[in-house]
Amino acid sequence: MASEFQRDKLVNMFRAFDADGNGYLDRSDFEALAERWRGLPRVRPGSELAARVDSVMLGWWDLLAAHVDTDGDGMVDLDELLAMVDLLPTMREAVAATAETVFDAVDENGDGRISPAEHRGLVDTWHGESVDVDGVFDHLDQDGDGYLDRPEFTGLWVQFWTSDDPAEPGNLLCGPVPTRR
Question: pLDDT-derived band of residue 180, with 50, 70 and 90 as boundaries?
Fold first, then answer.
C-alpha cells in the first residue's frame, strides 16, 4: 500500500499523465504522453528511438491495464494507479529499461550525459508544462560533476518509481514532490 509520500508523488504523476484531465488514465493518455516525448529533438519521426519511446510508454499502459485495472473497464483511476506502487519493486528490470529509453530521449546532444538543461526538458516533457526545478539538479548530481551519466540516471529513475524515502535524491527526478497541506 502506498505511503503518504508515495501517494503525493504519484498524484503528481497521475495529473501529468491524465492528458485530457478527465480523472482517469486510459490508452489515449499514454498515446498523448508518447506524443509529448516524440517532441524532443532526438526523438525524430520514424527513428528507432521514436519506436522505443512509443513501445515504452504504451507498454506501461499495457502493464497498468493488466495489473491494476481491476474492473477491466479500460480506465485506471488514482486508487488503481496507487496499487501499482506495490508491484513496481518487483518490476525493476522494466523500470530500468524505461530509464534507458528516457535517457536517450533527453540526452539532446548525444554526449552520454544529461545536463541541467536536459533535465529540465525531461521534467517539462513528463508534466506537459514548465515546472520549477530550481535547485533540484544539485540534489540529483551526487558526484557533483554537473551531469547525470547513464548509471546515475538509471539509479535515480529506479529510486523515483520505487522509493518510499523522501530523502533519496531520485524522488526529485521528475521535479519537486508537492505535499498535501
Answer: low
Q: What is the mean pLDDT of residues 96-111?
A: 95
If pLDDT is split at 50, 70 and 90, which confidence band does 92 have? confident
In the chain the domains, ranked by start, together with CATH numbers, are 4-172 (1.10.238.10)
- The four Cα atoms 159, 118, 116, 13 give a dihedral, to 10 degrees, of -40
* In the block, residue with C-alpha cell 527513428: 47
Q: What is the length of the chain?
A: 181
> Quick check: 172 and 140 in contact, CB under 8 A?
yes
Q: Where are the alpha helices (DSSP H) in 3-113?
A: 4-17, 27-37, 48-67, 78-83, 92-106
